[in-house]
Design goal:
The complex is a heterodimer of chains A (210) and B (103).
Chain A (H helix, E strand, L loop, with lengths): L2 H16 L5 E4 L6 E4 L5 H9 L3 E5 L5 E4 L1 H7 L3 H4 L10 H13 L5 E7 L5 E12 L2 E8 L5 H20 L6 H28 L6
Antiparallel strand pairs in A: 1-2, 3-4, 3-7, 5-6, 6-7
Helix pairs in contact in A: 6-7
Chain B lengths: L14 E7 L4 H17 L4 E7 L14 E2 L1 E6 L4 E4 L5 H7 L7
Parallel strand pairs in B: 1-2
Antiparallel strand pairs in B: 1-4, 4-5
Classes of the chains: A alpha+beta (210), B alpha+beta (103).
Chain lengths: 210, 103
């Protein structure tokens, strides 16, 4: 390559870096090259992981927490700052410790395991652990809370209350026929919503553990 | 751009462009979008874009001596040219690709 071209490319590189137009660099030589991402390059992934409804935890080779998202911290009932470096097996029952050790050794992508996470307040919550990634000696697990959501049941209770109130109104003597018709229409819609709510509770009910 | 500013090139010449990215980083995605726009405006129907994900295979950085990402490489027409960055500076990208002379 001509000196003139080399100078032009060097200037091009400096301009791109100065303008913030690059978000990764290649380091190393020959076949030992690696890509290093700048912080802004994975900002969106971090936001995604922080906001997702599944717990995520990355473990070091000795099964200590290197990184966890807020959802995982909520599951175990501990502040994030206290989770770092804690041994994962301290968050599960004694009976599950041997199982989780084996599970981590397998390190097969997409393998799954059911267990109870021990919360700081002494209660336990059923979860499914699944391997998301294993690289450079680090293991990333996804943690799915298996407790049924509370809101469909609460919604069902609220709908029942509305339905009772509507039936009471409908029995009122001297009710205008148009108002009665409107009340019946509302009752039908409430009944449909109540059925949907019941179906959601059924769908969420976890299958029996094997 | 006036015809006089453009680099003269044969009508049937196909441009082979290789965009080196790092997965789906914001700058890589921006570069791809900008490259598509530039090609549609200046090379309509006469270009091929190949996207090389260096996160998946960093060794490919060796071929074209890539040091920063994203980097666009013009393989054809020769001579080989590299444009570093997300191509948001259209003027710089056009000059780098020799679609426009530097002013």
């Amino acid at each position: 390559m001509k000196t003139e071209d080399l100078l032009r490319e060097s200037e091009n590189l400096l301009t791109a870096v100065a303008n913030g137009e690059v978000d990764a660099f290649v380091i190393g030589r020959d076949d030992n090259r690696r890509v290093l991402l700048l912080a802004n390059a994975y900002q969106r992934y971090r936001q995604l992981v922080e906001r997702m409804q599944q717990g995520a935890v990355t473990l070091s080779g000795d099964s200590r927490v290197l990184y966890a998202n807020q959802r995982f911290a909520d599951m175990v009932g501990m502040p994030l700052s206290q989770l770092y470096t804690i041994a994962l097996d301290s968050l599960v029952s004694v009976a599950d410790r041997a199982r989780i050790g084996t599970f981590l050794l397998i390190s097969a992508r997409d393998s799954r395991m059911e267990l109870d996470l021990r919360r700081r307040d002494g209660t336990a919550i059923p979860v499914v652990l699944s391997h998301a990634a294993v690289s450079d000696g680090y293991t990333t697990l996804l943690v799915s809370d298996q407790r049924p959501l509370q809101w469909p049941a609460l919604a069902g209770d609220a709908l029942d209350s509305i339905r009772i109130a509507l039936e009471h109104l409908n029995r009122s003597p001297g009710l205008d026929p148009q108002a009665r018709e409107a009340l019946e229409s509302i009752s039908e819609q409430i009944n449909a919503l109540a059925r949907m709510s019941e179906e959601m509770v059924d769908v969420q009910r976890p299958p029996p553990r094997t | 751009m006036t015809p006089a500013e453009q680099r003269p090139r044969p009508a049937e010449e196909i441009w082979e462009l290789r965009l080196h990215t790092a997965g789906q980083t914001p700058k890589s995605l921006t570069a791809l979008a900008n490259l598509q726009r530039i090609c549609d405006e200046h090379l309509r129907g006469k270009y091929r874009i190949e996207v090389i994900d260096l996160m998946a295979n960093p060794r490919l950085a060796k071929d074209h001596q890539i040091v920063a990402i994203p980097t666009l490489v013009r393989k054809l027409p020769e001579p080989l040219r590299r444009v570093i960055g997300d191509l948001s500076d259209t003027e710089r990208a056009l000059v780098g690709l020799e679609l426009r002379r530097a002013t």
